Amino acid sequence: MKLLITGGAGFIGSHVVRLFVTKYPNYQIYNLDALTYAGNLANLTDIENVPNYTFIKGDITDAKFLDDLFTDIPFDGVIHLAAESHVDRSITDPMSFVMTNVVGTVNLLNAAKTAWAGALEGKRFYHVSTDEVYGSLHNPEDFFTEETPYDPQSPYSASKAASDHFVRAYGNTYKLPVVISNCSNNYGPNHFPEKLIPLMIHNIQTNKPLPVYGKGENVRDWLYVVDHARAIDAVFHTGKLGETYNIGGFNEWKNLDLVHLLCSIMDRKLGRPEGTSAQLITYVTDRAGHDLRYAIDAHKIMNELGWKPSLQFEEGLEKTVDWFLNNQAWLDNVTSGNYQTYYEGMYVNR
Ligand code: NAD
Ligand code: DAU
After folding, report:
1. 3: Cβ contacts below 8 Å, ≥ 6 apart
2. Is this model's pTM higher than 0.85 or not?
3. What CATH code would you report for 2-186+222-247?
């Protein structure tokens, strides 16, 4: 099995690469990543010299590069995670989301379609997507199921929805063997500190304001990143072609409650009197078009593929806080920007 994983230097991708490299020593794992601001090879130092792992620096918006790559290496499967992933950035720069998430995905589909023409048996193109394509829930009893109509509300989710549509269209039109999953919010080690949980951990640690958008009433459904990687393993190996699987842990939190929980965990870990960190909470202007609530109905993947989350949220959050406190060098590198030059020369630059 020669398996191409895109976006493997990012947050979720690095956990997926690690799981596949260690669990499947007979597979050759190729991690293709452009190393944007979100890509960080320091996420993978523990496996960078393992024989079944290869890093390839490259950009999925470059169609020729992808065609050449698929000619050079006869991939059997693709797990596609590379994307622009931050909603706030999509509001200020939507076009980079169109380029990577839509054009990049279509380039990848085209490269696989050409390389696999006439030999589709055993091949698999797995597209990793998000619950945000379903829009925003307003009725507290509703959940996103695989049948929920798409209703994306931000440039990010619109670009992910477009990419999902292209993947399904290639499955239908060209019989490309595709499968898609849509997951809820992830958290855990290596999370880039522009996203809510790592940003709050970092700001609590450094005594900076904790910016809560609006009134903090928006609800997100959180899943530990390693459990998402395990779900991706299950979908890649046992998911039915042409199907979609929602992934989530039935774990909804209002933003403000979550920030208070983090403050309390951090007060305990840092030896501060309870209530100290919560004083840093600052209400700021709401995100434009801010989705109110996400909540995944994960019964399909649980019932059909036997996957379930391995961690309770409180346990996962403790592990996450511990990871950030024990990996100060990683955080300093990311927040200073040093990580973007530190690893130059270590990768295969095609
Ligand atoms: P991330 O931003 O941490 O990582 C994205 C990776 O893609 C980075 O390593 C980056 O360098 C790479 N990349 C970006 N543009 C590229 C390009 N043009 N060519 C090649 N590589 C490029 O993202 P993440 O949070 O790890 O998300 C990974 C995937 O999972 C995305 O597709 C995202 O939509 C999806 N997802 C994320 C979450 C979440 O909570 N973070 C939840 C559900 C689904
Ligand atoms: O649902 C899956 C999605 O989850 C993924 O597809 C995205 O790639 C990922 O970034 C995430 O999107 P969110 O917008 O939900 O995540 P974020 O961490 O940016 O924000 C979580 C919530 O916290 C959201 O309601 C906005 C709020 N927030 C965020 C930040 C960064 C704040 O209140 N303050 C902040 O500083």
Report:
1. 20, 27, 28, 29, 30, 75, 76, 77, 78, 79
2. yes
3. 3.40.50.720
